[in-house]
# Entry
Amino acid sequence: MKKLMLFAAMAVLGFTGMNAQGANFGVKAGVDFASAKAEISGVSATASETGFYAGFFAEVGISDTFSFQPEVLYVAIKDLDQINIPLMAKYAASEKLSLLAGPTLGVLLDTADGVKSFNYGAEVGAAFDVSEELFVEARYNIGLANLIEDAPSGFSSKISGLFVGLGYRF
# Structure
């Protein structure tokens, strides 16, 4: 598990290093309003918790309006810690407003028996530049992975979340 996370972090950093001329780097942190949904034979239950996230990102310019933004984030929600790796496409809708969308990979840390450690989903959101360095963002992550190991038909457990935070570009 740790090898997978190390490999993913090195791949993100290696890719951004190859394109360093058009790249910005930064840090971000904020609050995560998470929800877990369990479904058993057609009956579903949802629970919500609030946590935080923190990490770093690279923004690699592709054109004047498009960029690629890989990230590595630590997400903590009550007893659940996760490393998220969003791979976002970023579109500059205006000088200050950007729209983001893309897949996200995750590794749940310290999982219980019967719970998968690999998570994946999709994210959509927006970022607003307060200044050239500082921005605010809001994104929604929908969990697509069934986290129950060897789940029988009709059994699933998924994690989603609303992320709201600040970022700083160096």
Q: What stands out?
A: Strands lie at 23-40, 43-61, 66-77, 80-92, 97-109, 118-129, 134-143, 155-169. The CA atoms of residues 142 and 160 lie 5 Å apart.
